[in-house]
Amino acid sequence: MELEIALISVSAYIYRLIKTNSLWITQQLELLMIFIIGLTFIGKLDVLLPIYFLASLVLLIKHLKNISYWTLFFCGYFGVYLLYGLIVQSTVSTIIAFVAKCWQFIVFFLVINSTLHLKKENIYYNIKLGLVIETLLGIYLLFTGQMVDPNGLVRLVSNSQPITGNLAIATLPLTVYLYFNSNNKIKSKIILMNLFFLVWIILSGTRGYLLVYALTMFVIMLDYFRIKTNNMISLLKNILVCIVLLGLIIIIAMLVFPEMIDIVDSILRLNASVGIRTFENALAIDFFNNTSLINEIFGIGMGGTAGDYPEYLIALNRQLLLGMWHSAKYMNDSGVLFHNLYANVLLNFGVIGIFIIITMSCRIYHIINKISCKSY
Fold it and tell me: Does the pTM exceed 0.85?
């Protein structure tokens, strides 16, 4: 099954790369859709993620010119860890760690330094296509019952991999762009589509998706109300009315359907803990405090096995005694072990890695701010 899906994915990637060669946004979104569809059936990242990474990189490579010193520095830094991991450590774990945790920072600088010229694309169609694929995958997971919670209300996943919500978040920047560059009729349609997206984000059970979506759409909804009212006082009145009406609806619903509270709590996982993350963070800090100076500064490598270090095993045993689970995974696996990005960076790259990630984030913010100011 895994081989067949991988071969189908490769064929689909090649076809879409050729078919949408000049439409970069459409191409990247469709490549993501192919990856998510394959992940839905396999539920594993080991093979599909590297293939998707290579497919999405093809177009970018031929447009790379005038690379800045910052980009060269960041690529060189992670490149050293990548080569060392591929040659000396676990090859598969190194690739996954690089693509899943490091590439998201590097690709920003490569795109900024590229000569890509975006052509006029049908952004509305892209968002609508994303919603269609998201809906089809959600319906499939509903019928196949691949959910974490036994009551079937919490998470639509495939082998613990969150599926729904991915395309909703991926198309969110397109939503913002199209909303602020469209007429009122299109704005209303965009908001309606995103209400459907919200359903699949909630059913994904991924609270990070919900937070990102809510913060973004809150700004859009404020602007939408402002357009409808044309003055601040009317805007505040409309917002207040909506809050009061929403509150009344919630109160009435709870009185008529008392069980709704438990259902909403189950779907949104409001009382759910952060799970194993607390143990992971404590494990990472404990290992860092007791390991060698070399590991503290440089980490154990992108594809290193933490279980090879006695001080890590001691720290792991402490957490296991406190209730941590999945001991075999944290003892034997290589590369990315934790949910928290910074815990992984501290383990794999050490203090210097943390400094590099913070520096990259500051540079990204600076560049985005500079581009935004030029736009206005």
Answer: no
